[in-house]
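Q: What would this chain look like folded?
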Amino acid sequence: MLANTFPDDEAGSIKVGESLEALIWQHPVSREQKALEIISQLHDDFAAYKTHSQINEALLQTLTAFTGSEYGFIGEPENNNSTSGLCIKAVCNMRRHPDVRPYFGTRTDDGQYLIQLHTLSTQVLLTGRPVLNNNPAADERPAGKPACPTPVFRNFLGLPLIRKGEVTGMIGFADREGGYDPGIIALLRPILFTYTTLLYTDQADTLRAGTEAANRQLSADIDALMNTLDDIVFEMDEHKVFTKVWCKQENLLFIPMKEVIGKSISEVMGEHSTAFCKMADTLLLTGEPQYYEYTDIRQNLHHWYALKMSQIMTSQPGPKRLLLLIQNITQRKRDELELRHVNAALARNIHLLDITQQMGLIGGWEFNIVTGEIYWTRQVYQMREVPENFRPSFDDGAFYHPDDRPLLQAAHQQLLEQQKRFCLELRHISARNTCKWVKTVGMPVYTNDTLTHFRGIIMDIDKQKLSELELGQARVNAEQAAKGRSDFLSVMSHEIRTPLNAIIGIAGIMQDDPAADHKEVLHSLQFSANHLLGLVNDILDFSKIEAGKIELEHVPLNLRELVQDIAANFQPLAKAKGIKLYTNIDHDLAVQITGDPVRLSQILSNLVNNAIKFTDKGAVTLEIHQESYIRGKCSISFKVKDTGVGIAPEMLEQVFDTFVQEDSATTRQYGGTGLGLAITRRLVELMQGNIHISSVKGAGTTFYFTLDFELPESAAADRQTDLSLPPGFLAGMHLLIVEDNKINVRVMQLQLAKSGATTTVAVNGKDAILKMEQQKFDGVMLDLHMPEMNGYETIPHIRTLQPNAFIVVLTADIMPEVSERLHALHVKDILPKPYKATDLYRVLVKYRLSVTDMF
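A: My prediction, written as structure tokens:
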């Protein structure tokens, strides 16, 4: 058992000065040498038959000084039970700080001090492991703090005393300046192992044998300790002959380990032997440790080593012994080389950054929140045309245009209060009154989650900004020009379509029952009007395509009927030219597809019309083939072939350009605007397709393209192209016609004559309101452009006066803005002028439930 050692007077306690502690911990070799000396002293003390109390006190004082601690104690479990308490057997430096005594708890009858369990110290007994805590005051665990409230240990190190696998006691240290590190534990373990081995030798008559065994174990422990080092350690006598060597990996040695012992420095160290001998001589003469860096003596290895040479100090007289510690510092050297390269690269990058900032007209700034200091790069001084001794400030609004300063001040305020990044384009005015546009950016910078700086840049963007402003003005001018063109086209459309509506309407009415000698005249009249309408439509469609304002519909349509209708419409034209018009449609073509019937019809009509126009003999063929039919989708190819004049190879890529025909003679002979094929290509592309052309001059031309269509979920009954309605099919329907053009009013009245509907006429919106206040109407046929009150202004009054009356707008203005404006007024039925009587019937008949099943 451990003897009790708790002297009443500690005036004679060892007070180790910083010089010894610094000597021990400054040099690793000195620490290990001191550990060996302590172990040697332990052995000498036990061999001298000193009492356990004396040994405990001497060891504790020595280790307290060795570890640089303020306090120390040795204890063992009470009643050999590690769960009951800790009996203190020896303490160090307690008398100087009596307030620490309560930490050791109650004094027992036999004079021992008892530490209760569940404190920081006794965790060593409970766990059987070392306890190292460099901040007990901040430890919130129940066993993390000492029992006494003051003074609290600044740090603590406790190590178990283990004998044959059992915890037989512990040794504790506290209040080491700078705290403890795990390396101390490794150094103390061989000492404590030796202490416990010698302390518990069973009988005095076997002390010598036990001591010899302990010495052997000590040597093994020392060897084990030394062999844990990554470094190579040599022991050398005063004649510079190696007596011992420790190396964890023998292959690190220059020669086999067994060949080192008994060899001199010159025999082992080769080309470095001269330097090593000189170091040994200086050490033996002065006693001062030596240091030397060298490269590997083996030329094929590029390794660096550091030699630390010191003298082994013992209390016993005898020959001098030297300790050599060789460390592999290759990685450190590589790191130093890498650091030099990094520093060189950093300097180069800083130089390149400076050049880049100079070339890019960019300057940087940084504001230190803590010190209030602000830093500008050289480029900022140059931009502001101030000397480099100018003292900048964070609030540099004076360098900006007065109108822009509030923006900068607000951005700075948000940066300070909300840490919100800013990016502004402002007018910068230098000290010499040079005004330029700059982009200034600022952002917060955090260090360890704490806001410490604001950083930013100032970039000269004067040229870009001026170009941007000029471009913006050019865009405004272009938009104004486009709007002027759109307004002109809108007016032109209205002014041309209004009389065309009358012409085509009257011609259509007269053709229902023409006189024999009027048929040819009426046909010519209607053909000319339709031709003029086609030209107007081409111009307006191209304008809408250019403006990106064409939106495709996705409705069910019967493709077979649509193609047959197109062929029927162009048969008279083909017949008049003496050529044939054929259709070739796949038998298994999908009955219905989903698409835009109007635009698809426009594409095919343009191609068929173009083919007929340029074919004087032979035929024009319209072919429709279904390429695939998979999972609710189908792919359909379209082809229009003719046997006409053909196109020269050099013109094939230009026929789709706007206002382009093969030559001026073609324009004079065949007419047209040169927009038809350009519009066709744009429409095909809007439907996600590509149109192609192949042609042989004098033999004909083929246009072809393929489109993908979705199929309707359920196939609705095919709608008839031509309405077949009985006389009086709108009988009982009372319509209000709001139109200022008397001819168009008369045309509509004639078109409705056989329908049985009754009509009342209003010449403008105000007149319509008066009529609606006096009579009830089923629907209103409304023109848009009228004097006094136009159609747009009239619609809300119609909704208010007669909310159940339907509204059909008839307008010669078909620009996209018109549809958008009418949709905003919830008007869905729009008939563009000129319209066919059948188009009018289709709209009106859907409001008569009694005839819904007729089509």
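Residues 385 and 431 are 6 Å apart (CA to CA).
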